[in-house]
Amino acid sequence: MASATGGFNFDLVERNELLQKRGMQGPGFTKTGTTIAGIIFKDGIVLGADTRSTSGSTVADKNCEKIHFIAPNIYCCGAGTAADTENVTGMVSSQLELHRYGTNRESRVVTALTLLKSHLFKYQGHVSAALVLGGVDFKGPHLFTIYPHGSTDSLPYCTMGSGSLNAMSVFESGFRDDMDQASAVELVTRAIRAGVYNDLGSGSNVDICVIKRGSVEYLRNHQYLQGKTYERAHPMVIKSGNAPVVAERRFDVAQYVEVGPAPEAMELS
Amino acid sequence: MVDPSALAAGGGTRKHTQYPYVTGTSVLGITYKDGILLASDTLGAYGSTKRYKSFQRLTKVNNCTVLGAGGELSDYQYIVRLLEELADDDFCMDDGHHMKPAEVFSYLTRVIYNRRNKMDPLWNSLVVGGWYAGKPFLGSIGMIGTHFTDNTVATGFGNHLARPILREKHRPDMSEEEARALLRECLTVCYYRDKNSINRFQIARVSAEGVDLGEPFALPTNWDHALFRDPAAHAVGTW
């Protein structure tokens, strides 16, 4: 409920607090306790994310997508409230598409950055979206972090989310300038894995997105970290002859039962 | 009649320690083939101020045990005094026995848990490391009495920063050089990303040869990434 002057309208807060005192339970929200990360390598950007979405202590979605499309050359990882990250990135993606039609040019990463940070600042941190924005445009590769209150950093490597310290420790010991693609993907995968294995809010699998000048490789579920080691076949096929016959008793049912003709079919029309 | 020791000045009820003042940050510990290594920096921070820059947070308890502590450093000094009293008793008994690392660990757990039950905790995260009967010992004690032993331990920020690296790269049969290199890697990351730390560390070793607390040293740091020097390289005016 945005007001004309911008930001949220807090007029109903007092009413809500009164209702909650009387026992009303407010709506909950799905958070993404998360590990997201990005690095700049020789030819562009590698973004990485885990795939666990949590609602309190429950895992709401075991395999959600946290790397959002912004433009053909720009992708954005999102941590924080899932609804906020989805909608804010979707909104900016739509705005950029219209802008591309109007300018007839490829979108620039700083445009996405400015749209996102202005929106988040207007809502003073109440839109809980912590983003890692990365892309390659004609000026070169860009990697930014955007915090819920609207501040941004331009960095060669960055991490966000509850698993950010775990992932950052891998980056701090392993990052070099101008890595090649294989090493960069390996480093980001290790960083997300550190989050998955050491942070309870992150889990399941690793998604990777490699953005280079003119190409994007979206490696969905690049690594399965919690695949089932054994899966039962369904339906179960049990070969006959497997069970040993210990004893046998025969009953002649025919003496007690009369077999008659099949009854008429039911009228269904 | 109210016991005056239960009253604070001004007539209210007396309260116990609610928060720490002079604090130490992470302590790291790992086992290797012939012993254990404990590492910490040498900072006693007073809130955000780097007040005491050569504070030794690792202590030799006896010839086979080392104690490392983070958290409130006055409580740590009190704990060291308790252990010294026990060591003095051992010395006076003069029967050739001294405390095993597991005994020190057990004793400290009881002390910490007991204080927690009185709602007056010793505000520390302790690491007890030792080498006894040819086997390494490494244990961690939290301020409420949570305790466990493991091949790698980390307290404070080390939980988030060092533990992923240790879990990935540690092997119980590492050599001392490999173990020291691993700890140096973790200490560097902790220095980069922990606000309350300084670039002055100590690594203590316990092995069959006894305890070696080690001289303080600094680690090389790299601030020279191309995009650190010029973050706006690709987009003038951005930040």
Automatic annotation (TrEMBL), chain A:
* Residues at the active site: T34
Top-level division of the source organism's lineage = Eukaryota
Location of this chain's protein in the cell: Cytoplasm; Nucleus
Keyword Protease among UniProt keywords: yes
Listed SUPFAM superfamilies: N-terminal nucleophile aminohydrolases (Ntn hydrolases) (SSF56235)
Provide this UniProt record's keywords sorted from A to Z.
Answer: Cytoplasm, Hydrolase, Nucleus, Protease, Proteasome, Threonine protease
Name residues in a coiled coil. Answer: none
Q: Main localization of the protein?
A: cytoplasm
One annotated GO biological process:
proteolysis involved in protein catabolic process
Query: Which InterPro entries does this entry report, sorted A to Z?
Result: Ntn_hydrolases_N (IPR029055), Pept_T1A_subB (IPR000243), Proteasome_bsu_CS (IPR016050), Proteasome_sua/b (IPR001353), Proteasome_suB-type (IPR023333)
As its record notes, the protein acts as a catalyst of: Cleavage of peptide bonds with very broad specificity
What's a GO cellular component annotated to this UniProt protein?
nucleus
One of its Pfam families is Proteasome
What role does it play? Component of the proteasome, a multicatalytic proteinase complex which is characterized by its ability to cleave peptides with Arg, Phe, Tyr, Leu, and Glu adjacent to the leaving group at neutral or slightly basic pH. The proteasome has an ATP-dependent proteolytic activity.
Q: Which family does it belong to?
A: Belongs to the peptidase T1B family.
Q: How does it assemble?
A: Component of the 20S core complex of the 26S proteasome. The 26S proteasome is composed of a core protease (CP), known as the 20S proteasome, capped at one or both ends by the 19S regulatory particle (RP/PA700). The 20S proteasome core is composed of 28 subunits that are arranged in four stacked rings, resulting in a barrel-shaped structure. The two end rings are each formed by seven alpha subunits, and the two central rings are each formed by seven beta subunits. The catalytic chamber with the active sites is on the inside of the barrel. Component of the proteasome complex.
State what protein this is by name. Proteasome subunit beta
Source organism per entry reads Auxenochlorella protothecoides
Lineage start: Eukaryota, Viridiplantae, Chlorophyta, core chlorophytes, Trebouxiophyceae
UniProtKB/TrEMBL annotation, chain B:
Q: Is Nucleus tagged as a keyword?
A: yes
PANTHER family named among the record's database cross-references = METALLOPROTEASE TLDD, PROTEASOME SUBUNIT BETA
Summary of the function given for this chain in its UniProt record: Non-catalytic component of the proteasome.
Provenance organism: Auxenochlorella protothecoides
Per UniProt, which keywords does this protein have? Answer: Cytoplasm, Nucleus, Proteasome
Q: Where in the cell is it found?
A: Cytoplasm; Nucleus
Entry's family note: Belongs to the peptidase T1B family.
Q: What is a single cellular component term in the Gene Ontology annotation? A: proteasome core complex, beta-subunit complex
Q: Which GO terms describe its biological process?
A: proteolysis involved in protein catabolic process
Q: Which domain of life is it from?
A: Eukaryota
Instruction: Look up keyword Nucleotide-binding and say if it applies.
Output: no
Q: What is the name of the protein in this document?
A: Proteasome subunit beta
